[in-house]
Specification:
alpha+beta, Diaminopimelate Epimerase, Chain A, domain 1, 3 domains, 21 strands, 35% helix, binds zinc ion
């Protein structure tokens, strides 16, 4: 049994302890101590990290009354050790975890939305709400949570028998709890049952920043960051904004309209280019047709290989398949993809599905269609031209 010092003092960063047991598991050792300041993973809060003497503890797990410390080195039973907490990691966990209490309370208070799910990992923190919220709701809840941080309200712990839980105004009720229950109360805020670590004052959370929200299972998923994570994320995002504004030679506030204009310009250019390409292609088509080899039944085999976006391929195919007695194949490279289309006109007895199947094999792609027309796409790679050539020769050889 481990005396869990973190339960009553989340600020204690080290303690003296004795090894009760040490077991080997796969590639690591698990050390049971008689007392610890290292919080094991549980209740939605990630495990602390720290050291036993100088040996790193990379994870801690809880098994009923026991806390097992995961290390790369074995410890001897009865050995005294100094347990030291990695405070940066603990502070991060507390900031995200306590910030989650505060933001959930703020959503409940400002728009009556209940927290029905919580997820935290090394990069991000989410809560799921049982109703949809607007940008305005998010701003209100975020502000309320931050105001509660600025008030630097005390956060206190109470141990009560489960039979007395009815006397407390709890946002979330858990009917399954039995025995002595640990209550975490934030002054002017939330009271809830929780086994995690919390700072003694709300100010230590630093800040709460919602960075994304989206519809999720009939409600809403809120992604947010607290404390140092929020600061670092805002720093990263600000850098992106600054560099983009330098690239575009506009002020940060003008980046969005400038990017919108760039996008529109690019769409216009793209469409002009397509018109020109089509005009050029129309001009070349009689020559292409003249040079196209004849297949067994007199059908012309028109093979077009080009680069562009899928719409370019479609418009070329439209022009070629307007000709009579042709078997048309359009192979188009778009970034790292290859799109292929086949069409047969007149009463040629070719089956485009077979050609598409051959192309699927050559380009490791997928696609299909009807005997008269088929299409698909696969991976381009550096040798896409050689692959296309092998496909062309095969079709020609088998059908000439
Ligand atoms: Zn908690």
């Amino acid at each position: 049994m481990t005396d869990k010092l973190y339960e009553n003092d989340s600020m204690q960063q080290s303690c003296q302890s004795v090894v009760m047991a040490c077991r080997q598991k796969d590639d690591h050792f698990e050390v049971l101590l008689d007392r610890t300041v290292i919080f094991p993973e549980g209740g939605g809060q990630l495990s602390d990290q720290g050291w036993l003497n100088k040996e790193p503890v990379f994870y801690a797990s809880e098994d009923g009354p026991d806390v097992w410390h995961w290390t790369k080195k074995a410890f001897r039973e009865g050995e005294p050790v100094t347990v030291t907490l990695n405070w940066d990691v603990r502070l991060d966990r507390m900031q995200q975890h306590c910030g989650e209490h505060m933001l959930s309370f703020a959503f409940w208070k400002t728009c009556g939305a209940n927290n029905v799910g919580f997820h935290m990992n090394e990069e991000s923190v989410f809560i799921d709400l049982d109703k949809e919220v607007t940008e305005e709701d998010v701003k209100k809840a975020e502000l309320l949570a931050n105001k509660a941080i600025w008030e630097n309200n005390p956060i206190t712990l109470h141990y009560v028998p489960h039979t007395e839980l009815g006397n407390y105004q709890l946002r979330k009720k858990n009917e399954k709890l039995r025995g002595t229950v640990r209550l975490v109360a934030i002054k002017n805020g939330d009271t809830c049952t929780c086994c995690g670590t919390h700072p003694p004052f709300t100010g230590m959370v630093g800040s709460v920043k919602v960075i994304r929200f989206s519809h999720y299972k009939g409600g809403c998923r809120i992604e947010f960051l607290c404390g140092r994570r929020a600061l670092e994320e805002m720093h990263k995002r600000n850098l992106i904004l600054e560099e983009t504004s330098n690239l575009l030679s506009v002020k940060a506030q003008e980046v969005l309209p400038a990017v919108e204009k760039l996008r529109q310009d690019s769409l216009n250019l793209r469409s002009q280019l397509r018109e020109k390409t089509q005009a050029l292609f129309k001009h070349e088509l009689p020559q292409i047709l003249k040079e196209a080899p004849l297949l067994s039944d007199g059908t012309r085999f028109v093979w077009i290989e080009t680069e562009g976006i899928p719409a370019d391929g479609k418009s070329i195919m439209k022009l070629v398949s307007a000709l009579d007695h042709v078997l048309a194949a359009v192979i188009l490279k778009n970034d790292n993809r290859v799109m292929y289309q086949f069409a047969v006109t007149g009463n040629g007895s070719f089956n485009c599905r077979d050609f598409c199947q051959m192309a699927n094999e050559v380009f490791e792609g997928r696609g299909g269609g009807s005997p008269k027309s088929a299409q698909g796409g696969g991976t381009a790679g550096l040798d896409w031209k050689q692959k296309a050539e092998s496909l062309r020769s095969r079709i020609l050889k088998e059908n000439q």
